[in-house]
Amino acid sequence: MLSLYRKIFTTGVLTEKFAKNKLGQQQTARELGLDELGEKLKATVDKRFAGSLHIRQVDAGSCNGCELEIHALNNVYYDIERFGVHFVASPRHADVLLVTGPVSRNMEAALRRTYEATANPKWVIAVGDCGACGGEFGVSYASCGAVANVIPVDAVIPGCPPTPLELMRGILNLFSA
Amino acid sequence: MNDQNELDREVPEQFDPARRFLLELADRGVEAQAISPSPLPPAQLLEIVEPTDWGKAAAVAQSQAWRWVAGWAEDGQALLSVSVCLELQGIYMVLRTRIDTRQPCLPSHAPYFFAANRPERHMRDLFGIEFTDHPDPRRWTRHQAWDSETAPLRKSFPKEGLPPGQTPPDMNYPFFRAEGHGVYEIPVGPVHAGIIEPGHFRFHAVGETLLHLEERLGYVHKGVEKIAEGRTPESLARLAGRVSGDTTVGHAFAACLAMERAANLEAPPRAAFIRGILAERERIANHLWDMAAICNDVGFGFAYYQLGRLREVWLRDNQAMFGHRLLMDRIIPGGVSVDVANGAGERMRASSKVLRLELDDLLTIIDANSSLEDRIVTTGYLTLEDAQTLGALGFVGRASGQVFDVRHDAPYSPYDQVEVKVPLEEQGDVASRFWVRYKEMRVALKLIESLLDKMPDGDIAAPWITPQPDAEGLGLVEGWRGEILCFVRFGENGCISRYYPRDPSIVNWPALEKIALGNIVPDFPVCNKSVNGSYSGNDL
Questions:
Q1: Residue B303, Cβ neighbours under 10 Å: how many?
Q2: Residue B400 and residue B85: Cα distance in Å, rounded?
Q3: I need a surface site. Which of A54, A66, A75, A164 has the fewest CB within 10 A?
Q4: Domains, chain B, ranges and CATH?
């Protein structure tokens, strides 16, 4: 048990600070932009959502690449929860639906229902090239293509997949428009 | 390794499995033709002349302990052809037969091989082929986007499909029913509570104990096989890299290998070595993440964040050295698109060393944690017999005593030039699948170092040669989840006319139905994570 605590202390805090960069670690230096981005995001969430923005992620047919990067938002480096952004388990609790695509026809009804189950006011962000425009899959007998072809979309975050930083920027852009 | 492997049969002198198979077929009066030279290396190709003998061929294969690897169909206008790949002791063999397009009917392999069950239903839903004697005639990949009279993978079917409209929800699927005092059902999905892919699970439970689990997948079916048709090789490699986003290297590797074999082209040695490094880096990133997630699913936050941290560092190294965090589009037909620059080799060695030290540190702590042990040891058993019957692949198989690894048993470049160790566990529980991944990671780190040591100089891509119309190729690689098979056929103008990727998840998903049995409902997430099948790779 002691070794567990020792590991925690020796690892230290790796979360990339948005105020002052005390650690100066190599990884930190590489992710320029997180500082001001985080500050802005926190300010927006504080002002518009009383400090907590709830996101429900919906995979509507993605290849799972976008999900991996959305997961990364919760790792110790990005730790998006410190800005008040929280991923929730039900659309009933969500302010924002983060939808990855392309929307497969087999997921079309489930996506519509998830959208309907989300309380107003609600926003939809389409994530990834596929969610934004159909990407590598486009429209076919099995795919509806872009998320906007199925439910109203308020913002898109392109990229294949978008990096965690791009995801944060995209969430911020939704509310700064 | 390999100690007391009871599955190894006694080997008679000059054992040639394919020849023995052919002899046995002849004994049973099945007319078969070995095509020589095989158009599908490394596999041999065997044409079964009479489609009515298709079931007998499976019976013979089963009696000789072949493993059913994959099955796919092709629309040759007048005739439909169905191919099935089998494997025994690292020898691959493809059986093929042709049936009439108007009355496509074929004896099923599913009574002999469980692995054939869902792939045959997939073929039925997409090609309209009826498999007689199939033990489970329910639809599989087809939900409500097309009807039972429509066969989307026939050439006559337009890519765009019929005028779409809204796709209705998939109601009234005939799920297995369990009744009795105290038995209740829990339907879960397709939209799950976490950040994961969609699928439906139907549990039957008594109290907290699971009596039965049924998977209903197909929600992420996005017509990969259909939209591959008519693509250029580069474009197919891009699509292959998105069959399953976490296996982008594995699928692109298999697809490029298949296309190169069809074109009679070999990637330069340096390219092959870089492909190997990319594949091992992908393996490590995914194992780190899954081990983190297994710990998270039993509430061990420390390990989740620590292992997640190592994964993020690893991905940032990917970005710095190869230009993409998940390594998408780094493998192209003929080679790779990115070289290992001078400094990158040193950096990779250094980061491998750091990772090794970190793992030593962490896994010692994790191993000593009795509450974690309490949750994952004896949870989610997959017995050796079940693993063998299902043909379980990758770490799922190797945690239940199945030694098979393509890199070791049917090596391809660069793995034919380095030593590949295959770690094995025989307990078959979640803990085994956890530790087998850890051991695989150690092997992968070693492989990266040996590949760097032996890295030849030279080009990183060979100029593409347009293959003959009708040329076909087979790619077989060991992805991080296990064996990936990829079949490619070219059409006119060097474009693709058929693409079929078989992700290991297609074989491993049914294992989860077995694994979950008898466990308590709250242990299902950790059982699921210990297998971590790909939904996208399964549904295509």
A1: 22
A2: 23
A3: A54
A4: 17-132 (3.30.460.80), 224-539 (1.10.645.10)
* Single-letter amino acid, residue B482: G
Biggest CA pair distance of chain B: 70
Residue-wise pLDDT for B357-403, tens only, equals 999 999 999 998 888 898 999 999 999 999 999 999 999 999 999 99
DSSP one-letter string for B133-146: T-S--S-SS-SSSS
Q: Do A76 and B368 touch (CB under 8 A)?
A: no
With 70 as the cut, is the pLDDT of residue B412 above it?
yes
Instruction: Please give the DSSP secondary-structure letter assigned to residue A104.
Output: B
pTM for the whole thing?
Answer: 0.91
Show me where the domains of chain A are located: 2-176
**Helical H segments across A21-151, by residue range:** 26-30, 34-49, 65-72, 105-117, 128-133
Suggest the residue from A6, A59, A88, A125 to mutate for an interface test with chain B (most B CBs closer than 10 A): A59
Q: How far apart are CA B131 and CA A17, in angstroms?
A: 60
**B223 vs A72, A113, A143: nearest CB:** A143
List pLDDT tens digits, range A62-84: 999 999 999 999 999 888 888 88
The alpha carbon of residue A172 is apart from the nearest alpha carbon of chain B, in Å, by: 20
Residue B330 structure tokens: 């780094």
- CATH fold of A2-176, please? Rossmann fold (3.40.50)
Contact A110 B222 (CB under 8 A): no
Q: Side-chain half-sphere of B243: how many Cα atoms within 13 Å?
A: 35
Tokens of A91: 């659309």
In this complex, the residue of A60, A114, A142 whose CB is nearest that of residue B223 is A142
Can you tell me the distance from the alpha carbon of B201 to that of B216, in angstroms, rounded to the nearest whole number?
6
Q: Which amino acid belongs to residue B350?
A: A
Beta carbons of B208 and A50 less than 8 angstroms apart: no
What residues contact residue A4 under an 8 Å CB cut-off, 6+ apart? B302, B365, B369
